[in-house]
Amino acid sequence: EDRLIRRLDDIEIHLIPFKEKMQRPRLTFSQLFEGGGRDFTLTFGLIMLATLVTEGMQYLHFGEQNLMLVYIFFVLLVARYTSGYLWSAMASIISVLSYNWFFVEPLYSLTVYKAGYPITLVIMLIVALMISNLMVRLKTQAENAKEKEHQMEILYELNKQYMETRNEQEIYESTTTYLARLLQREVALYDREGHLRSLHSSRETLSQLTGKDEKAVAFWVVKNQKEAGRGTDTLIGANGFYLPIVLNGKPLGALGVERNEEHQLANSQLNYLRLVITQIATVLEQVSLASEKEQIQLENEREKVRSNLLRAVSHDLRTPLTTISGIAETLSETEGVIKKETKQKLLGDIQSESQWLIRMVENLLSVTRINLTNMAVKRSEEPIEEIIEAVLTHLKKVYPQQKIIVKMPDQLIFVQVDPILIEQALFNLIENGVRHGTADTPIFLRVSQEQDVVIEIENQGEIPLGQYQKIQANLTNDTEVPVDSKNGLGIGLSIVKTIIHAHEGKLAIETKAGSTIFRIYLKQ
Q1: Where does residue 116 fall: left (phi above 0), alpha (psi -120 to 50 degrees), or beta otherwise?
Q2: 238, 269 contact by CB (below 8 A)
Q3: What is the pLDDT of residues 455-472, one digit of tens each?
Q4: Global pTM?
Q5: 173-209 burial, b if ≥16 CB within 10 A, otherwise e?
Q6: Residue-range domains of the chain with CATH
Q7: d(Cα 468, Cα 487) in Å, to the nearest integer?
Q8: DSSP E strands, 418-452
């Protein structure tokens, strides 16, 4: 501030403290005569009726004090059934004048001869005014209570809509739609950057809050956290009234409401809008915190996947590469010495390890189909039977001697999956069964349909107890799968877990009676 003043030459700067003033409602001529012809007719009609009733009571020789009470009672009725203070006050004055004109000697004159009657008439006027004033206040309080109850009902309905929203845009849309229908005017919502996010109107056309000037007012409101627009002392040329959405001193946006001669805003509506602003701020903050939490969880999940895959790669690729390197070195050193049968066996080992490496690369390439930004996959509705058939075709090429027994339900089952990824996951689990299973024993593949689609892969032969306990604990706790290249539990099982998790499914393991069962749960 001091540097700015020093840089400005020949300019006077006056700092004026800002103090927000509470706007007091002004009583207009139209408000003074609120109710119009209806209340005018009702007021004079009730006073005339009071006069007729009093004439009848006087004819029946009721006391004068009772005649006064009749007028006071009808003043009470005027206060109850008319709008504002004016008509009840007018009824009080006319009642006293009518009583004096028709029932006080001399009749049909405002002159009073009887001693003490002027004081009686003054007291009658004061009592009538006080009673009418109390009645109007009670009626106003009852209307305010009813209005507050109505506002609470509206807030409750709005909160129910907020509970069904999943992101900020849905909050903006539901709020503007609801307020536009409630207030019968255009309503706009801006975000914390001052960008228009939602605009709705009770009319078919949108014209009042769409101009550049309106957006500039909304931007000013967001940055300064103060109300502005028509009906305030700031930027009064706007077509709308703008309120800042603030929570704990942090600007979250602005709410714009159309305001003009045709669409005025009563104090009750302004108070209600400020109440809605508080609700919007709370909901937006909750959604923002939930989004931040979700981003942190996704980031942690991405790091888990990366670290787990790197760990698996370092184990699973090292072993076959070391084997190939060792065999190649042996062949080069024993050239011309090694027997043909031994050489053929070593070359077969190189081919086997190379095929293993190819399958590992296929596993790694399959992970590229998973969007690690949000751990999502492109799904389509696929029959599970076709996926399993593709897996079995691939297995016959790699393990032609292995027997696979498949048990499928009679009905056709569809799943929402990426078929290539699920094929890779099933292949990895079946191959794991081949490597761990007892020689010359079949592998069972069963499919069942419950709440989810369940795929079971069972092989004869148990995983060592310690290894089983580690896998079981890590699958349950959703952490990384332990890597054991020696036993074939490495990148293959890690990728299976990643694929199933990306499909929002579940992977489980069970050992019983000398066999190992892997279960995949997929949502339909």
Answers
A1: left
A2: no
A3: 999 988 766 656 656 665
A4: 0.47
A5: bbbbbbbbebbebbbbbbbbebebbbbbbbeeeeebb
A6: 29-148 (no CATH), 165-291 (3.30.450.40), 375-524 (3.30.565.10)
A7: 12
A8: 443-449
